[in-house]
Design a protein that fits this description.
By secondary structure, this protein is mainly alpha-helical. It is 56% helix and 11% strand. The protein has 6 helices and 3 strands. It has helices spanning 3-14, 24-30, 33-52, 64-71, 75-87, 108-117; strands spanning 60-61, 91-96, 101-106.
């Protein structure tokens, strides 16, 4: 098989699922690849939720299995990251419904404060 065919096959295989949007600066700021990846996805899910709710970012649900399927994080890894993000006040969580489902809300105000405090983004306030 020609090298070009290998490249094409690899891309076709990987494109069976959509890529994950990921913000590398969050890894540096949070000190954890898992926390950076999880928060990156929460931000994206939050934005998708706001789009479908006419600009209002409200609570949205993601099950343990949905997160595991998309990010590869185990239940334990998810719980550890959620605890870290809640401790930093970057997210809120609650359980609602029958059967019970996990709901998340990204605290965009606290996230902006966190970004400014932990990066060189002070210039955006000027």
């Amino acid at each position: 098989m020609k090298k070009d065919n290998f490249n094409t096959k690899v891309i076709q295989f990987l494109e069976q699922e959509r890529p994950v949007i990921f913000y590398p600066p969050l890894v540096r700021m949070l000190g954890s690849i898992e926390a950076g990846l999880f928060l990156s996805r929460l931000i994206c899910w939050n934005n998708e939720n706001a789009y479908f709710n006419k600009g209002k970012a409200e609570w949205f649900s993601k099950t343990i299995n949905e997160v595991k399927e998309e990010l590869g994080l185990s239940r334990w890894e998810q719980e550890k990251v959620i605890k870290t993000l809640k401790k930093l006040s970057l997210i809120e969580t609650k359980v609602m419904g029958l059967p019970p489902r996990r709901y998340f809300r990204v605290r965009l105000d606290k996230l902006l404060e966190f970004l400014i405090k932990n990066s060189n983004l002070q210039k955006i306030n000027k």
